[in-house]
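Entry:
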Amino acid sequence: MSRLSGRIALITGASRGIGAAVAKRFAAEGAHVILTARTVGGLEETDDAILKATGKNATLVPLDLRQFDKIDQLGYSIFERFGKLDILVGNAGVLEALGPVAHYDPKLWQRVMDVNVTANYRLIRSFDRLLRASDAGRAIFVTSGAATAPYPYWSPYGASKAALDMMVKTYAMEIAKSNLRVNLIDPGVVATKLRMQAFPGEDQNTLAQPDGITERFVELAEPACTRHGDVVAAQ
């Protein structure tokens, strides 16, 4: 049997990169995947790949995670259709721009915090009960080495990932006695659009590819997973 057979999984930022790779892997492992992203065309490309590989469609939800009330609406829709959620992958993230703290654009700062931190808080708030309704709810949030290793000009992104780590670890402590298991995953250096934005001259062919780091996501999503409150390296 496939390792995620019959599981319902929601993946944010699933139009490209790591999110799309995880969506395709989860679907190949038997999960029904609910995919969110702002880019409709990207979602459709991911869905086409899933349909070709598995013969089944994903559920596509075009969504800007900064529209927080729509996260609540999505939670209600999933409750009405499925009555539970087995797997949540909080993958969506933005870098926006690199720059010194003293000169950073407040609007860009707020956008980084909204997507990387607040949207994940709203996901937890909206999906906690649905994850608890699963026999083995699993929540996975994508962090970064920038959360613990300060680097010049990376302050908004690093601060947002540090805040995400603290929030998720605290949440894990609060629900430790439930059947829900919550972890963070650090993908490492991967060929993504965000990485290209930060290092435009880098040859992405020399980096790990998104499809090559999905195994850890599957391990953390499986009902048999016992890890909880950890930061897990994908490579």
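The domain at 8-233 is CATH 3.40.50.720 (Rossmann fold).
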